[in-house]
Each structure stands twice: as C-alpha cells, then as structure tokens.
Amino acid sequence: MADTEPMRLPDMPLHDPFVVADEETRTYYLYTSNDPSVSGVDGIGTMVYRSQDLRDWTRPVVVFLAAEQQGIWATDGGWAPEVHEWGGRYYLFTTLHNEDRPLPLPPPDQWGTPFQVPSYMRGTITAVSSSLLGPFTVVDPARPTPPANLMTLDGTLYVDPSGQPWMVYAHEWLQTIDGTMEAIRLAPDLSRTIGDPVFLFKASDASWITEEIPAGRPHQLAPYVTDGPQLHRTPDGSLLMLWSTYEKNVAGKDGTISGGYVQTYATSKSGGIEGPWRQHRPLVREDSGHGMLFHTFEGRLMMILHRPFENARGKLYEMEIAGQELRVLRRRADLDGGG
User: In what order do the strands lie in the sheet with 193-202?
Assistant: First the structure.
C-alpha cells in the first residue's frame, strides 16, 4: 500500500483504540500503541491514525516514544493510549512497565489474595503536548501517575461535576487476584495525585462471569481481570463506565478455566465516581473489548473496540442510551469491514 493511499480498519493494527473527535478540524484522531510495521518507526510508544469519515484513514503518525523521554522509569508496554484536552493542552495517558523493578510482595490477604504472586512496576504515565499530533513529553519521568507500589494499568481521565480531575485505573489481578477498579484525585494540572485511591468495584462483582463455569471446576475461578475503564456522562446525568474482562466458560486440558474477552459496563447508582456501581451484562462478546464511546460530528453515539485480542482490529458500533441502560443499535460493518 502506497503511503498516500487511505487505510481501512481491516488493514490497521489497532489494540486499545481511543478516538478524539476534533470539532475544529472535523477530524477523528484514533490513538493506539505504536506498530512499526505501519508507522515505520521503531520503539514502544503511541501512534495516531486520522480520518474525516471513519472509513478512510491516513497512515499513522508516531506522537510519543518512551525511549525518547529522558530519565523515564520504564520503556516497555505502551498500552491503552488515550488523549484528553485539559486546560488548553492535550494530555496522553498510556501504560508502561519495567520488569527489572519488582514490587515488594504484599502479605497474604492484603488485597484478598490468599498467596503471594510476584509483580513489578506497571502504571499509567501522563504526557503533555500542545497538539493532538504531539510530540508528547512525560510530565514526571520518575514514576507512574497512580501510586508506584500498585501494579496498575489503563488509566483514564474523569472530571467530576465540581471540576475535580481523577484518574480511574485498573488494579492488576496479578497483584490482587480479583482485579479492581480504583480512582484517585489529580492535581489541577494533572501533574500528580492527591490523597489515597478510592475503591470502586472488583471484577467478580459482575456475577455473570461465573454463570457458565464448566461442571466439576468449582475451585478454578480466580483470577478475575479488570481492563479498560472509560467513563461517560449520560444526557440524564447518570455515570457509566465501560470496562472489559474475561468470561469463564471454557475448560482447559490442564484443569483451568478460561474464556473470551468481553466488553461490558457498569453504572453508578449515585451518579458519582464513588458509586456504588451496578454491573450490567456484556455488550459485545466474541473476544472483543477495551471499548470507548464518542460522538460523530453528526451527533451519533459510537463505540469503538478491538477484536480479536491478538492481532486486533477496530470494530465500530452505533449505540444508544436509555436511562441508565447502554445498548448496541447496530454494527457498522460498512466502516470496519466486518469480521
């Protein structure tokens, strides 16, 4: 494919997609982890595709490379990039990790974990730029934004009705066994956290996860995974959170239980970030997830997610919100190529 030819979603490597619909330029910016096979740039980082119609996309431009950040604490990962406008600037959140920096093992049962599992530094970093095309520069190269003693990922920005910014993130099942969603307040310039994390919910709160456990495997339930939070305020003021996890409906030959990646969501009964959170049934199965919601320039509510988990591509759905219920209206195979 020539560099000047438009790309289509079936041809675009796309894991953990995140769309910014820029009204000023009427352009959709689609961020994902850097893939040198399409960007032409080596290194862990973030790249962005652009489109004006969600069908034809430019070849990606690299907007962030971890190795170019002086003194940064980690250069592996580059997962779940997303970009938010805040205070007239653009902030990139993306997850990095460093396996050479192990975390102290928590005592048994600190997070409900009956045994110790080795873990290492992983967390979302914050980087800033004056442009949606970067380059983005890390705000604090010494540590991730959430508490560094926690193994976390997939941080996203939430701003509460008072204007207080928060980072909402997944606390890794590798450290908790039953993965959790947590939130922590951010300073007004997003440069640091304020106070302690707030527990939101745990993955096993979604009771449907264990509905189809194969017979004879009652003791093979853990772990439970939390991935990909994204907050959305509905027209009636309700607060919902997209998130992803794995079903537990396939019995492995080694006695374990697994299942496909799924896109699900929860709603806050109070309308606030602290919850309590009510879990809903999955929106999309078929090894799909890490979705986010955005509006087209024509006002349609859309969800983009990736499928399958390995060698992922972007899939688009038209959505609707009825009260506190989020519903899939139709798959946009005309835009994403089907599959």
Answer: 152-159, 165-171, 180-186, 193-202
Rounded distance between C-alpha atoms, residue 339 and residue 182, angstroms: 33
Domain boundaries defined on the chain: 9-336
Sign of CA dihedral 300, 302, 61, 6: negative
The pLDDT tens digits for 105-149 are 766 666 555 556 778 999 999 999 999 999 999 999 999 999 999
Residue with tokens 């090894």: 287
- Place domain 9-336 in its CATH homologous superfamily: Glycosyl hydrolase domain; family 43 (2.115.10.20)
Both structure tokens of 103: 């975390």
Calpha distance 18→29 (Å, rounded) = 8
Task: Tell me the C-alpha distance between 239 and 326, whole Å.
Answer: 11
Q: What pLDDT does residue 250 have?
A: 81
